[in-house]
């Protein structure tokens, strides 16, 4: 055994020296010796060597911080601040944790360590990725401590940036692991992955659920994540292209799995979490001063290296605190924001510019100023993969065409939303740059910029200069190609917003608002640029032109509901909602409104809307307009669920065909909790027996009642298994059940955060809590 260890060390030594002397005769000889010695090593030593090599590579990769942080002593190993954590939801393995104090930290760490599967949620830039990277580094470097969130020894970490996975593959995460990570490639790599998963030695870190590319096949990754984060394997028959994939997924369910996401994105695109806990990353808390201190030290060292005038620390700190106070206090616990703000202030002070202009235009202006400085402030830390000659050319020409490059970067951000892509290859970036420069007839040096694109001379190639500026970062995708993404999601949002306002125009955004990726950008523009009414009006118009059967319809419906939940002027909300109702009645088109859209309605805020709806219900009852009746009934119950029940029942008495049925609806809405559920179940069964179709407005209104607490008008969790069991008892055909549930499921996905069961329609159908008989499974597969 000792001899084998000696052989192993000598082989590693030969290989290391050979790599350093690459190209020489001696290097080739040493490499040959190392390979020969490896063949004579015991298999157990080979396994240990491969494992150690993999761990070293993982540690080296995750220790790198984005360019904006580099040099500030903010490497991942020391984790520049401790993020405050809080339990977001009551899950099976969670407690509501206190946020401060030594004992609170120990209790929090204990609960996190005990949970096998965790979803970390938080705002952009709050520290979710850094939390994952630090944990990966502790595991890979075998430096587990009392403060570590995972205290299990001997784990093998797998870090997966979800933005780089191939969402068109049936099992995107598994495909990325088996193709992009050398340790798990090939036949033996796949066996190694299965062996480690079965022995529960894997710790899988899925970073950036909200950064998955926007295409229809993204549902595949939602399904796979649902499998990994829960115990459901009902999807195994159609998700996995081979038996081996299902076997690995089943084994992975026993391992530790962490995933990060923006909170609002996760609630809009839920995955099954039957055995996972949710924690919120709350930001710097009281540790912001420590980050500011390290930033200040870094800038003082940087000025000293450059031989410049020392930084006035008092003026710098004063400007930083002033920027935080003036409309930016809500972002002061965000490490990314603090770093960007300090960077922009430092550059303004060094260049003798007015510091107040940094925060004059809010968060978007700060990020735009930071992006502009990154294009000019090129240093050696940005050019690790390229030669010294190319590095010299980039640094020497960094100030050339600065404004043109900023315009190109903004257009790149916009095109990501327009085309529904989250990452770009170099060809994408060059194509966007050429399109912009070709269209900009009056751009200065236009011909020189076009000629330089694609050139090997980096001094004239603006695409290369942008790629190595620090605004974009490179990552390997599932096909092992280098692709680029923005340094952070906030950069992409802010730069795309600036492109909308100053280049392509908000009209173009409104025209494409039905595209899921543009819906997200529309929300940002409405929230941060004061364009709520303009964006909301465009979204409302889309509701009337899109087919309810199309996926875009539900995206637009959810977007309109999200816009109504933004803290904006209540008068604007009343005006727009009144316009929505008038258009519905004028065109006799009654869209399915997201429940959250009605959440702002009540007697105090919308008295005029209540009277308007009562008049419409009266007219619908007189003319037996059942579609209009089904549309208005939930709205009135939301505004005033108790006072008008008797009045509504009297108005409905003039309906001939639905007299008894409508009276039963009102009775079910006013009964006690247990009786309410039973009454609505009877009502739903009766609806099908009387021949109502699944998409009939009255049927949908009835399921709406099934989701509401009696008398309160509030939505409760969608009990899918209860509805299906109910319909099966009444001998409703399986195909009809599927059609009914799916037709209503998209509304259920958009329930309020604290009340929704969540999940995509197919996930909830096949992953719900009931046994699947043969007829049901056959119908679902069809």
UniProtKB/TrEMBL annotation:
InterPro entries: NACHT_NTPase, P-loop_NTPase. It comes from the Bacteria. Residues 116-212 form the NACHT domain. Signal peptide: none annotated. This is Putative NTPase (NACHT family).
